[in-house]
Design a protein that fits this description.
The structure is a homodimer. By secondary structure, the first copy, chain A, is mostly helical. The first copy, chain A, is 68% helix and 0% strand. Chains A and B meet through helix 7 and helix 8 of A and helix 7 and helix 8 of B. Chain A binds a DNA duplex through residues 10, 31-33, 41-45, 47-49, 52-53.
Amino acid sequence: MATRTDAPTRREQILKEAARLFAERGFHGVGVDEIGAAVGISGPGLYRHFAGKDAMLAELLVGISEQLLRGAKRRLAEADGSSAADVLDSLIEGHIDFALDDRPLITLHDRELDRLRDSDRKLVRQLQRQYVELWVGVVREVYPTLTEPTARSAVHSVFGLLNSTPHLGRPGALPGRGVTAVLLHRMARGAFGAAGE
Amino acid sequence: MATRTDAPTRREQILKEAARLFAERGFHGVGVDEIGAAVGISGPGLYRHFAGKDAMLAELLVGISEQLLRGAKRRLAEADGSSAADVLDSLIEGHIDFALDDRPLITLHDRELDRLRDSDRKLVRQLQRQYVELWVGVVREVYPTLTEPTARSAVHSVFGLLNSTPHLGRPGALPGRGVTAVLLHRMARGAFGAAGE
DNA sequence: CCTTCAGGTTAACGACCGCTAACCTCCCTG
DNA sequence: CAGGGAGGTTAGCGGTCGTTAACCTGAAGG
């Protein structure tokens, strides 16, 4: 995978700032003029890059869901010979990386879904469900006593735990990224373990 | 404590419906006309009961924060002779009850705080912080190896876990309220346990 | 029986917001 | 060196939203 070193395109700048603003004040709470100002152009200039405000949100949410699912599938495929427990650790690690590195997106992901057009919302929900079911399968392999509904509830709850990073204080105030990642990982495993007896 | 049997006042009806709507579509996504319609009166009629839309949100958020803190203090006082572990279980139980019974409020609680007037926001934040610090104290008593910042992170994460109930499917789809409460409780204890080694 | 007032109603105002129209200005390319 | 498209600009339209104003009504109280 070629790591990007080139400058971000204007579209990417806009998406990044829009994500931050949407997460801070909600989709309806942010005006197009503000998004424009955040990237140094003025309101209507955005329409050279996006069909509308809705399109920005849609692209953000679809992108997040795809990225999460793609990463999980890759981890599942890569760790083919490993134990189920190792795969679960890999999934947790991937989700934590995402939660710590893209906090605004994590916030949007479960907050602004209802603002999407029907077709986009369906797509996002489908991707999210696939992601959840992938976790459920691995979790049930590690803890075979769990019924499927219980495992699904447990997975959602652990997502709540991992996605709590936006509430852990401003970016710099954490005990350090690595320390936080380890703590979250241990707590997630502990939570699953307690769910599975 | 006298259990209420009398009919809810109009103010209470309004607050309840406003909470539901705000949680569903966000503060800015709901119009006063909709809130009015939800209680059978029309938009401007609300102004006989509240100074404005902001005032409804403020009353909701302050009310939630006060209720959570009051409940926690009561539990701490009641279980005076008990072990720290029992107190922690009581706190977890109280938070779960709240999360399961007032799902819209839980959603609002950490989502719409920034829409408040400065003074209200300060008040809510102060109440929230007191609630967190109360938990941190108990958690550190149960797990003395935890540093204060780590314990605080752990508490926030467990809140994320417990507050995930809105994502667990529509009200009836859960495996049953009691079962869910027990599962959440075990996972919360498991997460704290893993954090404290 | 008249008054008062709580709790509604509809009409309308002013602000804001998403979006379009019309226009401008580089820079690349044949 | 034309010219054309990419990527901006400002002005302004249409709709929505929170709020206020003015008015109505039914029930309680002296």
